[in-house]
Please model this.
Amino acid sequence: MQTSLAQLRSGWRGSSSRIATAILLLGLVMRLVTSLWLVPAWEQRAGLASTPDHYPNLALSLIDRHELGYLNEGASPTTIRGPGYPLWLAAGMACGFADTRWLGIWTALPMIVLTALFAVWLAHRLGARYALLFAGVVLLHPLPAFISARTMSDEFYAALGLAAVWGWVVARSASSARTRWLLVIGCGALVSLQLLTRSTGLVTMGAIFVFTLSTWRSAWRELTLFALLALTPALVWSVRSSQLEGRPVFVHSLAAYNFWYGEALDRLPLDDSRGRNHQLAVE
Model:
């Protein structure tokens, strides 16, 4: 009996390792092709800039000036974005990913690694075919690959939210108190970074609260610590943004910007073939 259990454990570890390795390689190859070849070629044909949201400038501003700003291309400091994703790009630049094409791969790394880990977890519970199906949908879908290759924050933001929700579900069934508290702390840190990336990280917090109140009602201490860890950095940054704006702002003023940008586009003519209305709307 002991021998058979040992063989099962050894076989499971080997299977998990193969699944994780295959998914990591699949994700890296997909993103290398997209970031280094497909997207740059498309941008060149379309005559478009490679970083439409100028996040690398924000990262360089954090490194050079120790403030969140657009250097010589816009407001410095700025309240239009949060510091979460620029901090991740700054870390990538510090690791040598200075070229925007390689920053696109750096952007995708959290989701690639998370997909491999989550797929192993799924394989353990539902089987390898479900794990590989999940990984295929996440890593082979062209939209997140395209967005990350242009150094936009959408996939990074999604990876933080998925990791936090998954970590909280695992914490619910953790076998030891130490593991449970470590997972709670990790989830709080993930959501805090997600909130600093986009204020809509509050939706992730809401999902965790709903799950807890419906299935884990005794976890009021865990929920309190999680909320404190998740909200404190965002509230501190909100004070900074509110002082710069002269009005209450939660993390950043992107929501107001998007609303008025949409209003401006709605009032401008629709037959704009050269993108001039974009600049007019920004102004």
The chain has a mean pLDDT of 89. The CA atoms of residues 56 and 89 lie 7 Å apart. The chain has twelve helices and no strands. The radius of gyration is 21 Å.
